[in-house]
Write a structure and sequence with these properties.
It contains 12 helices and 20 strands. With about 500 residues, the chain is of the alpha/beta class. It folds into 2 domains: about 260 residues, FAD/NAD(P)-binding domain; about 150 residues, Cholesterol Oxidase, domain 2 (2-Layer Sandwich). The longest helix has 20 residues. The protein is globular and about 65 Å long. It binds flavin-adenine dinucleotide.
């Protein structure tokens, strides 16, 4: 809707954020007859708007141009989508169920009821149907991924084809800049249109400033239209019987905090996990043309038990040059071999937790990488280098400053012998989780078993903030399954909200 003046809307449910959590919940509730308003700060782009102009797309689809930073040693660069469909519009499409051991841990440590695999099975299946979770068509897999698999096979390591939410994805390798073919079934082309079909309303370009409270009861939200150059325009108020924050694990705690919400646990914004991620750049003698074919067609799962997953992730040359160790002519020489590169990355299930503070109403993340996790990353880089040499790599640039390029297999061992400080590590992430964690105990958790904020009424969180712990796999499907589960709970008590 285009909003021409200050406006007040009424609804049964207002959901702030239209990403993995928000769009899923909106569709599930609208389908069962609830009057839902979704509010999204970002713009409503369509598939036709998405191009291979990486820097232009980053400016349009990502918050802060994709350059958000968690303060720590090392600082961790992180990215959040800011557009209708949220981060699902720019994500890689990996779609994995929460590992059983994690669900069991949530039951055991957070006391969450009905969260085990047998309880979640139907929710996962429903999500997988809605977003079409499938293996890639084989012809969409490029040579960089074939080399990753070849290396894993040579080492005898477990490697599996990735499951992705897509319909005959041709492998244009543009996931991170909006899918130009519409093959990726992001929330933009799955749950958002489904919600609209069932009568939900969507207010895009509207930023929610505050949740409106009457005592402990949430009664609506107030915000403003985001005008050109992010200027504040008309005021928007939505009054509702249920208020949901689905802004993601960085924005949700800030929204709750600036709305004056205090939880008995004092844990709002704490418990931030990040799945710290590092990348290696391997150069081969043969042409690789890593931009051809889908990225992350496979995952190396051999070290899953240690909390490490490996994958090949082609990165556009401009972004790669900006984020790779090296400078001047040396960097120029490296980039001249762009067509011979395999860029590989890893996901690390972390043990440290950071926090999001609300400073003048804006979130600022703080995260200190644990020494244990730093050592795990060094081991991961050594192992992944072994794999890449086994696949035929000529040299490998590590994510560690002042560590010379690895030129042969035996060099991988030197990584264990050197002192590599955390400050030398170039760490990034796209998986922020846990800042309004679920848990039965109100003195330890921010939200209850279904995401209702402890000690508040009619106020719910429905996004990655809910995770009590990191999950060790890509989080989108877990968020969507938890949203589906939360919707079922709301619908069980539907008379409260209509
Ligand atoms: C580049 C990238 C690649 C990724 N790859 C994968 C992958 O392959 N597989 C996977 O499982 N996960 C992946 N992820 C992570 C996954 O996409 C996210 O974990 C997931 O989308 C988070 O869901 P969410 O509902 O918590 O938040 P989001 O999906 O980020 O949605 C939050 C929405 O809320 C909006 N919002 C925030 N504050 C306000 C406000 N005040 N007012 C109005 N709107 C607001 C935001 O603009 C945003 O659109 C990736 C993420 C990124 C960024």
């Amino acid at each position: 809707a285009t909003i021409h003046g200050d406006t007040v809307y009424d609804a049964d449910v207002v959901i702030v954020g239209s990403g993995a959590g928000g769009a899923t919940l909106a569709a599930e509730l609208a389908e069962c007859g609830l009057d839902v308003v979704m509010i999204e700060e970002g713009r409503y782009y369509t598939t036709r708007d998405f191009t291979a102009d990486a820097s232009g797309m980053i400016r349009q689809l990502y918050r802060d141009g994709g350059a958000s930073m968690a303060i720590g040693d090392p600082p961790v660069l992180f990215q959040e989508g800011r557009t209708v469909g949220g981060s699902t519009v720019v994500n890689g499409g990996m779609s994995w169920r929460t590992p059983e051991r994690i669900l069991e841990r949530w039951r055991r440590e957070a006391g969450i009821a009905n969260i085990e695999m047998r309880d979640m099975e139907a929710y996962f299946a429903r999500v997988e149907k809605r977003i079409n979770v499938r293996h890639q068509d084989p012809e969409s897999i490029g040579h960089d991924n074939a080399l990753l698999k070849q290396g894993a096979d040579a080492k005898g390591w477990r490697v599996i084809p990735n499951l992705r939410n897509q319909v005959h994805c041709p492998g244009s390798n543009n996931c991170a800049f909006g899918c130009p073919t519409g093959a990726k079934q992001s929330a933009l082309v799955s749950y958002v249109p489904r919600a609209l079909h069932f009568g939900a309303r969507l207010l895009s370009d509207v930023k929610v400033d505050k949740i409106l409270m009457h005592g402990k009861r949430a009664i609506g939200v107030s915000g403003h239209v985001v005008g050109e150059d992010d200027r504040k325009s008309h005021r928007v108020v939505v009054r509702a019987k249920l208020v949901v924050s689905a802004c993601g694990a960085i924005q949700t705690p800030a929204l709750l905090a600036r709305s004056g919400i205090r939880t008995p646990s004092g844990r709002l914004g704490k418990n931030l996990s990040l799945h710290p991620n590092v990348k290696l750049v391997a150069t081969f003698d043969e042409p690789v043309r890593g931009w051809e074919g889908v990225h992350q067609a496979y995952q190396v799962r051999e070290f899953e038990g240690e909390g490490l997953l490996f994958a090949a992730v082609n990165i556009p040359p401009g972004v790669l040059a900006m984020t790779t160790n090296g400078r001047g002519a040396e960097l120029g020489r490296l980039m001249a071999d762009y067509d011979k590169m395999v860029v590989a990355g890893m996901l690390c299930e972390d043990t440290a937790t950071g926090r999001v503070r609300s400073i003048n109403g804006r979130p600022q993340a703080f995260y200190q990488l644990a020494q244990f996790d730093a050592e795990k990353l060094i081991r991961g880089v050594a192992l992944l280098s072994e794999l890449l040499f086994a696949a035929g790599a000529r040299s490998i640039i590590t994510p560690f400053a002042h560590v010379p390029a690895l030129e042969r297999h035996d060099d991988t061992r030197t990584l264990y012998d050197r002192t590599i400080k955390r400050s030398q590590m170039e760490v990034v992430t796209v998986h922020m989780m846990g800042t309004a964690a679920m848990g039965r105990d109100r003195t330890r958790a921010v939200t209850d078993d279904h995401g209702f904020v402890h000690d508040a009424d009619r106020l719910m969180v429905c996004d990655a903030s809910l995770f009590p712990t990191p999950i060790g796999v890509n989080p989108m499907e877990t968020i969507m399954a938890l949203a589906t589960r939360a919707a079922a709970h709301v619908l069980d008590n539907v008379s409260r909200y209509q």
